[in-house]
Amino acid sequence: MNFFRLITRLLLPLCLAASALTAFYFLINSRTFQFYGGIVHRVETGRKVVALTFDDGPTEFTDELIEVLRSEGVKATFFLIGGLIGQHPEYGRRLAAAGHEIGNHTYSHHRMVFKDAAFIRQEVEKTDSLIRRIAPQNHILFRPPYCKKFIGLPRYLHEHRRETITWDVEPESFADVRSSADRIAAYTAAHTRPGSIILLHGMNPGDGETRKSLKALITRLKKRGYRFVTVSELLHYRKRPNAEAAGASAGSI
Ligand SMILES: [Zn+2]
């Protein structure tokens, strides 16, 4: 075998394997695509509405977020971890009592890739039942940890007529942004569009800059004419995207 053929025989499988791995990585992390069911990263609308979402928790930092949101008159959506609701139901109850929407972020915050059907069902259903104990909600939205999903989770959600809620604005994903409250607020204001879903955390000990940024972030968006709604409210705009009358009535949601 000559040298050229040897290299070709080695390189080709390696390149194919690398391409397959890259495609798989983008697929399981995609904010906008999955194999089954609906996935929502934003809503197409001309109205200046936006949904603030907070993942993880509830923890002892939850009250700080509740207070800022209360002072600004903003309702948000919190994707909570079932295990932490079990440990701190009082924080979850306070979120619900303050009028915020509670979503499901699994029970144990595992990456939901290559998990069997029983594990997926337990992660979703156990958390749903904990949420129902703290919040009187009919429909519970779902967001996978780290946005990771492949076949089993989207199929389970689709079979249960539920969508995957992701996001289109994620200031904390950039190290130079998340290290500064000012930059988190500025980045968010610059990248938000009508119908955006903003991903924040804020309830982990290391989320201090996010907590510090919240008031300025809200103020900047209000100055740009944005109104804050929960994700469930935002989804109503999707159903009537072109009707001005719908926009007017949706304004009272
Ligand atoms: Zn998370």
Number of helices: 11
pLDDT averaged over residues: 91
Ligands and ions found: zinc ion
- How many domains? 1
Structural category = alpha/beta
> In which range does the helix fraction lie?
40-55%
| Largest beta-sheet characterization | 5 strands, parallel
Radius of gyration: 20 Å
N-end to C-end Cα span: 72 Å
How many extended strands? 7
Plain-language structure description:
The protein has 11 helices and 7 strands. Helix 2 links the parallel strand 2 and strand 3. Strands 2, 3, 4, 6 and 7 form a 5-stranded parallel beta sheet that branches. The protein has a two-stranded parallel sheet with strand order 1-5. Helix 8 runs parallel beside helix 9. The chain has 253 residues and is α/β, with parallel strands linked by helices. It is globular, with a radius of gyration of 20 Å. The longest helix has 27 residues. The chain is 50% helix and 10% strand. The protein has a single domain, classed as Glycoside hydrolase/deacetylase (TIM Barrel, Alpha-Beta Barrel), CATH 3.20.20.370. The structure holds zinc ion (ZN).
Secondary structure: elements and pairs:
Elements: H1 3-29, E1 39-40, E2 49-55, H2 62-72, E3 77-80, H3 82-87, H4 89-97, E4 101-104, H5 117-134, H6 152-159, E5 164-165, H7 175-178, H8 181-191, E6 196-200, H9 208-223, E7 227-228, H10 231-239, H11 244-250
Parallel strand pairs: 1-5, 2-3, 2-6, 2-7, 3-4
Bound molecules: zinc ion (ZN).
Zinc ion (ZN) binds next to loops.
